[in-house]
Specification:
The protein has about 300 residues and is an alpha/beta fold. Helix content is about 55%, strand content about 10%. It contains eleven helices and eight strands. A four-stranded parallel sheet has the order 2-1-3-4. α2 packs across α5. The termini are far apart.
Length: about 300
């Protein structure tokens, strides 16, 4: 009799365990299905990667093509790059001017939806996001694309855009006030032409040693003219970039005695900054802080 009871209890325990195990497996399948439901977005570089995170939130899965710590102007697509793009629901990049390699890839992947988020720019400098309102224009384009791709989450994307818009408005006001009373307006950048929009919007005189990419030539004559201008205008600092070799800035500093301060283009970021998840706003506030130091601005 006792053996029968024990057998019954054993079978009951096994049945309970079986139901629990099946429940756990069903939950795994459910979570896996939810994960795969997320739209798979590929971002060319960090600036669009972060804007996608801000607008898409937990409704999308976003990956970045240019590896952290890599200078984006030197990025060369690999077969793996093409595979990642071909499997995506959407590719987001800045523009064909800044990322000509995207255009070549899309010739062979015509069925992959893509978005050039960068607004039309005027002049030589296509780095439109360096001005807060330029980043906002890009965020609006990204929101439109996500709504088209995933209309059931339209309200969610719109809400995130509104939040981002408020943050950008505050950032703009902070730049406007923070750069309104400075000892000098001469913004000398020993790097490529990436801060023209920022200088324009906050009434700074921008001087860059090279052109729109790091591959532009910097002649001895141009270097000499820059050194002369720094001395004549009594500039107290020169600015350089996060992933740019320090040689040129150090050379200018040695000739003029000025300090060197970093500015962030946010196209490519260090591995540490990537892992810490720094946002567009974080980098821009660091830029503001260093501009205030370098231009000797009063805090109002």
């Amino acid at each position: 009799m006792k053996k029968g009871i024990y057998a019954f209890l054993l079978l009951a325990s096994l049945a309970v365990f079986g139901f629990w195990w099946l429940g756990q497996e069903n939950e795994k399948v459910k979570h896996s299905a939810q994960a795969t439901e997320k739209k798979q977005i590929v971002a060319s570089g960090y600036v669009v990667y972060d804007l996608l995170r801000s607008i898409g939130g937990d409704k999308i899965a976003v990956t970045q093509l240019v590896p952290p710590g890599t200078e984006p102007h030197h990025f060369e697509p690999t077969p793996g790059t093409i595979i990642r793009i071909s499997e995506a629901d959407l590719l987001v990049y800045v523009s064909a001017e800044l990322e000509p390699w995207v255009k070549e890839i899309l010739k062979g992947l015509a069925d992959v939806p893509s978005l050039a988020a960068g607004p039309v720019y005027e002049g030589e400098d296509p780095h439109v996001w360096i001005s807060p309102y330029g980043a906002l224009a890009m965020a609006k384009e990204i929101e439109k694309a996500l709504v088209t791709l995933d209309p059931q989450n339209k309200a969610y994307y719109r809400k995130n855009l509104k939040k981002f818009e408020k943050e950008i408005e505050q950032l703009h006001q902070d730049f406007k006030q923070g750069l309104s009373a400075c000892q000098t307006k001469e913004m000398v950048h020993v790097g490529h032409l990436a801060f023209g929009a920022l200088a324009r919007d906050y009434h700074l005189n921008f001087h860059a040693l090279t052109g729109t990419s790091h591959q532009s030539e910097h002649s001895v004559k141009k270097m000499a003219a820059l050194v002369k201008m720094i001395k004549n205008q009594k500039v107290s600092a020169v600015f350089t970039e996060e992933l740019l070799a320090p040689d040129l800035a150090q050379m200018v500093s040695a000739e003029t005695g000025v300090q060197i301060l970093p500015l962030y283009t946010i196209q490519g970021v260090s591995k540490t900054d990537f892992e810490q998840g720094k946002t567009y706003q974080d980098f821009m506030r660091q830029n503001l802080e260093n501009l205030q130091k370098g231009l000797v601005c009063q805090t109002l």
